[in-house]
Amino acid sequence: MPFLQLKTGIEIIVGAEGRLYIEVPGETYLSLSKPSIGLLEILKDGVSGQELFNRFGVLEVSSEGKRLADLLEILQDYSLLNLSPNDERLRRRQKVHTTLGLDFFKRIPIRNAHFLARFGQSASDVPRVYLWVCICVLAVATFFACANVSPPAAPPQVQQLLVIAPLLLLQLAIHEAFHAFAMGYFGLPVTDVGIGLMFYVIPTGYVDRSAAVLLPSRADRALVSAAGPAVDLVALTVVGATREFSNEPWVALWTWLQIFQLGALAVNLNPLSRSDGYYMLEALTGHTNLRTHALRLIFHDITRIPPPNYLVGVSKQRHFAYYLYVVSILLYAAFSFTLVITAVLYASG
User: Fold this and answer.
1) Residue 101: predicted pLDDT
2) pLDDT digits (tens, 9 = 90+) for 298-322
């Protein structure tokens, strides 16, 4: 086996829930288990592969040896070892993450957009509790603004859609900007901002918020994800108020805009895909990689294939929570499918 050594300049960072992380190339963070710290200490000085297995007292063909080999492959593929990443394995790993993570998303970065965090830094003196109170007030206001929304008698006309589309794109841009503001508010870097294509077709935006894992408070991490939906709540309330004081044909236009806004908000708060709702759920429950861990755990339970190292020794409470999460996303998917079918039947008359 080759000689293995950890690259220089790699530091272990304490982040959310006291978890340990390593910053990896691309300015994302790799979560570490406590047993892996001993491995990193050995790798700092360098060791041959066979000697490493001997030190841990495991055989390569044993389940413990395979878990150790898996961890070494992860370190290699994240360019943390002296070995070059295995391109074929990296593509395979990325394919698995894309499938399990539902990460069917094309990213188009925007250069020099990192300045957005500076706006958040200017508001860093505002107490966090005020921000949460504002979001709660907005949620109540949105409920009353949308309580009596019902689809107009006729489907949206082309002229209405030509007005609605740019307004939704503007709302989306402000939504993503507020995520960046929230990162700056907590003094975190914004490393990647851009335009995205969900399922490679639907236009959207994105802000890399991976550094939020360093925030120790669950509420603070959730606030970073809630900043975007707060913009959506403001937009829904404003459009609802505008609708109340408008006459036809404007009432129909604002009503359809609200319906599209509500649909976008429901999609964005879903607990399944990489959405604000999912990241808020992760933050508030203190779980990381919730969806991937839950799906992989159930997969290994069903197939009886030995699970990866990070799923070994999962407590009964967390095991139950993973199953509960999967049941919740199945119910959400069924509810969403019903809504889509209802909308299609309505549109077809």
Assistant:
1) 47
2) 988 899 887 876 777 788 888 898 9
Cα gap 154→63, rounded to integer Å: 62
Distance of alpha carbon 324 from alpha carbon 317, whole angstroms: 10
Cα–Cα distance for residue pair 343/184, rounded to 1 Å:
39
List the chain residues with pLDDT less than 50.
100-102
What's the N-to-C CA distance of the chain in angstroms? 67
Torsion angle, alpha carbons of 288, 290, 292, 298, to 10: 130
Residue count (the chain): 349
Q: Residue 239 burial (CB < 10 Å; 0-12/13-18/19+)?
A: buried
Domains along the chain with CATH numbers: 3-100 (3.90.930), 108-270 (no CATH), 287-349 (no CATH)
DSSP assignment of 29-47 equals EEEE-THHHHHHHHHHH-E
